[in-house]
Every structure is written in structure tokens, then in C-alpha cells.
Amino acid sequence: DGTLMQLFAFFVERCRSALGVVLCFSPIGDAWRTRIRQFPSLVSCCTIDWYTTWPADALGAVASKFLATIPDLEDSVRLACVEMCRTFHADSKELAVRFREELKRVYYSTPTSFLELIQTFKSLLADKRQTISSLKSKYEVGLQKLTTTETSVESMKQD
User: Fold this and answer.
1) Residue 145 needs a FRET pair 20 to 30 A away by CA distance; which of 1, 16, 111, 130 works?
2) Rounded to an integer, what distance in angstroms lies between the CA atom of residue 53 and that of residue 86?
3) CA distance between the termini of the chain
4) Where exactly are the structural domains of the chain?
5) How is this protein annotated for GO cellular component (predicted)?
6) pLDDT digits (tens, 9 = 90+) for 56-108
């Protein structure tokens, strides 16, 4: 058994040998350049993994995983939504190339933007479902009132 200082030194040594830190940065824009200038050891002392575009099957797998959490969505509709997300992402990449060629401006269509597309789709779907549910409820209440009124009118005619 050791003293408190020895235990702390052992703990620190274990942390140094086993601890790993992951930093995620987007290489787009001035913020990246500023960070690199402020902290040059980010380049010199770190292992940099560049993640480029995802292949189509990876996009499909990611979209399937995220869209699997949507309740009451038939499999055929889910597959169509996955394909729609993949198509939107591929088309945005093509349009980004055209945008760069015609306007000399750069737009990046990244995997993060694909994830944002899926999250936006899920959010929009939930909002639209809620709106439709509300409208359906109002319609049913109105229809019920019309039926009640019709019944009342018929009984008044007979009286």
C-alpha cells in the first residue's frame, strides 16, 4: 500500500497512458485557420483523421438508422425516405460544383449537412403529423356537430 501521493501519482500515470481525447473540427472557414494559428500543436502533436465524403451505402445505412426511430412509418415509406435523403445529398453535391463553377463561390455538402437534413426531415414530419392530427380532430368534431344538427333538424321537422 502506498501513501496518498503515491496513489495520486499512480492515477495520473494511468490516465496519461490510457486517456485519449478526440477533437472534432470542421476544416471549413476562418475558425479552423484561426485555431490552427493559435494552437500549432493541433497539427504537430495530433493524429489527424480526415473524413471525406461518405459512400452511397453509408449514407443509406445512416439514414436508415436515424429514420428507424420514427413511429408509425411503413417500411416501404421508410426506404423511399432513405432514397430521397440520399438523392437530395447527391444533388446538393452536384449543385455545389455548379455553384463553384458559375459563381466562383464554395459550398460544402458534408456528412454533417446530411445528418442535419435527416434531423430536419424528422422534425418537419413530426410537425406536419401534429398539424394533420389537429386538423383531422377539428374536422371530426365539425362533422359530429353537423350530424347532431341534422338529427335535430329532422326531429324538429317531424314535430
Assistant:
1) 130
2) 12
3) 100
4) 1-50, 53-159
5) dynein complex
6) 899 999 999 999 999 999 999 999 999 999 999 999 999 999 999 999 988 88
pLDDT tens, position by position, 111-130: 889 999 999 999 999 999 99
* 93 vs 114: CA distance, rounded Å: 11
Class of CATH domain 53-159: mainly alpha
